[in-house]
Amino acid sequence: xxxxxxxxxxxxxxxxxxxxxxxxxxxxxxxxxxxxxxxxxxxxxxxxxxxxxxxxxxxxxxxxxxxxxxxxxxxxxxxxxxxxxxxxxxxxxxxxxxxxxxxxxxxxxxxxxxxxxxxxxxxxxxxxxxxxxxxxxxxxxxxxxxxxxxxxxxxxxxxxxxxxxxx
Length: 167
Prior knowledge:
By secondary structure, the protein is of the alpha+beta class. The chain has 4 helices and 6 strands. It has helices at residues 3-24, 28-43, 52-63, 87-100, and strands at residues 66-75, 81-85, 105-114, 120-130, 137-149, 152-166. A 6-stranded mixed beta sheet has the order 2-1-6-5-4-3, with helices on one face. α2 (28-43) runs antiparallel to α3 and α3 runs antiparallel to α4. It starts with a helix and ends with a strand.
């Protein structure tokens, strides 16, 4: 084999290895998006069992996405508003909300990452929220703050940006 072919083959193998690593090892932005998806799926009741054990499992999944000192400041469609501080308050509110709105569906769109630093990040997200009740559909824009701790991203703050649409 000629030296040129050998160098070309090695170059192609290195390029393939880099592509494979890029495919397997997610970027920091992708890791944050996975945390968002885990939080979204744990809040949504769609297709999930309504029994107590399944509810507790979903709430536990949600709290795994949050810092212990998480802050939530929301002013949601229909006049619902409130502030929560700490994972225990969020846990209690999530249980109550899931019981009050058993058909709750949340879809995330327009996820824009910004201020991505080694241990912090910010995302602006539009959430389409359907409570399953009459006139229970809206789109809401939220700003989320993230902190990285021991190699994993956690949501540390959620705040309403603006109500986009209420039907």
